[in-house]
């Protein structure tokens, strides 16, 4: 992996201006529009019956609320129909466009989602949710400059929104702008100290800057906040390896494997630690497991050959 790149995009949230939309899959998460209040309480799950949709000024709102209820149930096709009808009745309904985009996003229809978020922003340039959702898709697609611009707009509109600063920090980290990443993540932690992803990502930034002590402190805090954080255990193990703290590295990597059994990279990393300790039998076992999970894993295959050669020499 290229130095200066933070691999994982943990904790990114897509705004659906309700919180509480079910995840139909593990696509990047969205944030719904919560029409008027935009609060973070769980709305009523009741879907207004078709008979409740009456001709008049509230038609758009009723279709919108039905769409939100369908989203919370993971019924995105039905939600799309309702949001489209709300927008047909009320063409300047920014929150309707945002939530329509969210439904597309949960279906993996990212081009359609981008179009809807952009329409929402054109109607209401201060709709934080739409800017944030746009940033999430851009970061997911590797369009880092666009993602940074979107998250910067969110921070401009909502300076106290810690999770937006976390996402901005991640985008900077992915771009290799580690100092900017650290600055944003520090701001996020100051605003909201208990976000595991903030500590994880600042730890990753420190790691790729070679500031290993700071990385260890941050990754340990991420684990304290979220003990089952497999990626944090894995990267803490690799930082320990880089500091030649091999026993500590083994402990963390084994924890990561227990939490995320089918990750070939973690098995490969653990095999590398065993190699440094000249424990070739154990290294071979880990490399073989990595290859079993991913037969095309060239690095693990190369490491396996090296471990087998060294073990053969050791036995002579």
Chain-wise SSE layout:
Blueprint: H1 59-72, H2 76-89, H3 94-106, H4 110-123, H5 128-140, H6 144-157, H7 162-175, H8 178-191, H9 196-209, H10 212-225, H11 230-242, H12 246-259, H13 264-276, H14 280-293, H15 298-315
Helix pairs in contact: 1-2, 1-3, 2-3, 3-4, 3-5, 4-5, 5-6, 6-7, 7-8, 7-9, 8-9, 9-10, 10-11, 11-12, 11-13, 12-13, 13-14, 13-15, 14-15
What features would you describe in this structure?
The chain has 316 residues and is mainly alpha-helical. 66% of the residues lie in helices and 0% in strands. The protein has 15 helices and no strands. It has helices at residues 59-72, 76-89, 94-106, 110-123, 128-140, 144-157, 162-175, 178-191, 196-209, 212-225, 230-242, 246-259, 264-276, 280-293, 298-315. Helix 1 (59-72) runs parallel beside helix 3. It is elongated. The two termini are 35 Å apart. The model is unreliable at 1-11, 16-27 and 34-57 (pLDDT under 50).
